[in-house]
Write a structure and sequence with these properties.
The chain is an alpha/beta fold. Among the domains are: 2-216, ANL, N-terminal domain (Rossmann fold, 3-Layer(aba) Sandwich); 405-502, GMP Synthetase, Chain A, domain 3 (2-Layer Sandwich). Helices cover 28% and strands 23% of the residues. It has 15 helices and 24 strands. The strands form six sheets. The chain has a six-stranded mixed sheet, with helices on both faces. The longest helix is centred in the N-terminal third of the chain and has 17 residues, at 29-45. It starts with a helix and ends with a helix. The model has no long low-confidence stretch (mean pLDDT 92).
Length: 503
Amino acid sequence: MIPEVVAEAAERYGDRAAVVSSVGWTLTYADLDALSAEAAAGLIHRGVGPGDVVALCLPSAPEYVVAYAAVAKVGAATAGVNPRLTPAERSACLTAARPTLTLATTDLLPGEAGKVLEVERATNVDSILPNLRLHGITAPAVPVLDVDPTRVVSVVFTSGTTGNPKGAVFTNTQLSAIEAADTGGTATWGAGSDQLAATQFAHVGTMTKLPWQLRSGATFHLLARWRAADALAKLAELKVPVVAGVPPQIALMLRDPTFDDHDWSHVHGIVAGGGPATPALVAEAQERFGAPFSIRYSSTESGGVGCGTSFDAADEERLETVGRPRGPVEMSLRDDTGTVVADGDVGEVCFRSPAACIGYWRDEAASAALGWSDGFVRMSDEGRVLTGGAAAGCLQLVGRTKEMFVRGGYNVYPMEVEAVLAAHPAVAEVAIVPRSDDVMGDIGVAVVVPRSTARPPSLDELRELGATRLSNHKLPEALEIAEALPRTAMDKLDRGQLTREFA
């Protein structure tokens, strides 16, 4: 799928920029096709072909996209390794991937990972992968691949914070289904615009969605490192119509002192995924950007396709839920035996769709535990389907299955409590962690990043606010003030680190 899209995009868009580097030089659509063909020839020269895996320990830069396209052109699979992971975490990913070849920049070189090709950071188009690209009469020909829906294209490592890394496997079939789901089944050429790349290219957002992103003719602008002020300046300069990112990035932009220096009249929508967005964040973002907010809820394993709220949804839906299943997605909430729970009851969220991964790379045990026998993939999130009002049928998340704790015999879901407490005007961010208690078993600790260090909220204020919507056993019984909440490499809340620090 990727080779065909890259070739046709080059014909259609030619010198249009596909990717703009963090220092301003561009990779055009024509460059992407030509350079990836030369890199593919270099891969074939090194013995890489169908069935192999090439690992990319590369930053999110134009050379990553060229390498990914090149690997697809030889029929091999790409395993992206997030550069923000620690050396030990990157090493664990490579151990799981067992690549035939690893491409890595000097700062990301693995200690032991089989065959490694060191890659220098490109400073212009000509310097992209120079020691891999081959061209001319001595270069091996890159064959035209047969159409094979079952060919593995990408291995995407989950962004969890515990356990061994697991690589979700996607074939051409899943990439086609993801494109159909994301575009409403009407993928068209030329519908794209300027976009700011908000997440790492090793993330599911690029690894499984690159075909339709290239098909759209979009131009992706890169930042050397994501910082709120830089992102705001670039969004305003380019007049980007849709502000996209993970919820913490949206929150950081709203808190940045330069926010009101810009005109946001060009923003038509805000899209956030990759983590929960509190009602307070959604409401503030809509007001200050002057645009509707759409929440996307999915996972790496679901192919980045799951539930979402529409831009024109009622406030009850946009503020309190993560919306309804999108496209071909079927949703089911189940208990720990796999029995479907009634609407309104809490259960583990499960999705079934043709976009979901086919399993974990070379990990039969983890693949077997990925879902139920009827094809529903477990999301490891607890939620309920609402039964009344404008949000009837929508999914409301209450927390992760492994994050729930028990206070005095009653279950407490941190995400449910956080969604309420985040509405306090003195709270910038809040997370709930359990703390052992001799009487109650566990109690909730509210870890708060205040909007102003001179005026943090008090525990009594938080409890008073929470009592309007939460049962007494869910209210926090201790308060910790923090400068920032710990984040994973994918900017998700690192609850493991949070618990170690404050529990």
